TrEMBL record, chains A, B:
Chain residues forming the annotated DNA-binding region: 25-44
Record-annotated HTH tetR-type domain positions: 2-62
Domain of life per record: Bacteria
InterPro entries (alphabetical): Homeodomain-like_sf (IPR009057), HTH_TetR (IPR001647), Tet_transcr_reg_TetR-rel_C_sf (IPR036271)
Listed GO MF terms: DNA binding
Protein name from the UniProt record: TetR family transcriptional regulator
Keyword vocabulary terms for this entry: DNA-binding, Transcription, Transcription regulation
The keyword DNA-binding belongs to this UniProt entry's keyword annotation: yes
Transcription keyword on record: yes
Gene3D superfamilies in the record: Tetracycline Repressor, domain 2 (1.10.357.10)
Stretches that traverse the bilayer: none
Length: 186, 186
DNA sequence: GTCTATATTCCGATAGAC
DNA sequence: GTCTATCGGAATATAGAC
């Protein structure tokens, strides 16, 4: 059974990805957990503390997920990245960066730094994946691997955002085209 | 000299693109304009009314801007689209859809409909531009023009968001790679 | 660790004078 | 069309009992 602290972080994570950082309140967490807002403040004195915990957990999940795949071929590794976005899409969520970046300038500095750190880690991993995959002939693309990785991340992020505005089918259309461009089949 | 109503909309537009819809308040508008919040409510009874006016103006600008270019070659037309995003990038802003889509589910329905309408218009225009441009040999890409248009819009939107999180250079790296992929030179 | 109770601040919105 | 004044509500956060 999950303890309260973990459940708070988990719910906050969901709320950020569904409604945005500035749009959710402690009440949105205390009500479903049937606790009072003071209990949340005990675990996380400020909303900034809570936000940072959410990003920390996301970073740990990303590191753990990619770590397990280190020995797999690169097309399987890239599929892992697409699958994490596909899962969010099915749940009607956007990714953490997609949710937090529009509000970035309104966020306290320690939170900004955590977000930038996470984005750098994702870019670095994706770059390595594409680079090695191209050398092995698993992918086909022009230009620097780091620039291509940026495009892939950019498309995945925006596919979740645009799915909300333009309809659910948009996600599949973007990811399909993306994989096709990389020569990574389907 | 701009009248008050136009200045309110213009400031709201800037605030949405810099801080997000839920993060800005009437005070952020009344202070710089040196008016009281009641004056804003006179012109726009609710925040929803103000938000809709912002989207209406954006739509009018888009229609006017693209209308003027109808006779130009398609690579020039596409450049117009990139230039509007480049302008926002220089001002440190994101685009309207990039700002509003994460909060989409928290927005009142009439506002959601306006946003979806704007996004559909932009997609339709971009699709036509790419389609005709490819027929003339100005662009080179695989797949449906509408899917490619989606990818272009997706990248432009995300390039502004990621520039905030990952640093300003990201915008140029994404747009450069995008144009290169389309065979649209620089 | 969770509670009750409350402080403080800010928000969108309205009434009525000018 | 803008003002003063205020309402009602919600948000983050804190103090102190249990």
């Amino acid at each position: 059974m999950q303890d309260t602290k973990e459940r708070i972080v988990s719910l906050a994570d969901q709320l950020i990805k569904s409604r945005g950082y500035n749009a959710f309140s402690y009440k949105d967490i205390s009500d479903p957990l049937e606790i009072k807002n003071a209990a949340i403040h005990y675990h996380f004195p400020t909303k900034t503390d809570l936000g940072m915990a959410v990003i920390d957990v996301e970073m740990q999940h990303f590191m753990a997920g990619t770590g397990k795949l280190a020995a797999q071929p690169e097309d399987k590794q890239l599929k892992f990245l697409f699958d994490t976005f596909s899962k969010k899409h099915k749940e009607g969520l956007v990714c953490l960066m997609g949710s937090l970046s529009p509000d970035y300038d309104t966020l306290p500095e320690p939170l900004q730094d955590k977000i930038s750190g996470l984005s750098a880690a994702i870019l670095e991993w994706t770059t390595g994946c594409l680079e090695r995959g191209r050398e092995k002939g698993l992918f086909r693309f022009e230009g620097e691997a780091s620039d291509r990785a940026l495009l892939v991340i950019s498309n995945l992020l925006a596919s979740l955002l645009l799915s909300r505005v333009m309809g659910s089918k948009v996600f599949g259309r973007i990811t399909h085209q993306l994989l096709r461009d990389l020569g990574a089949g389907k």
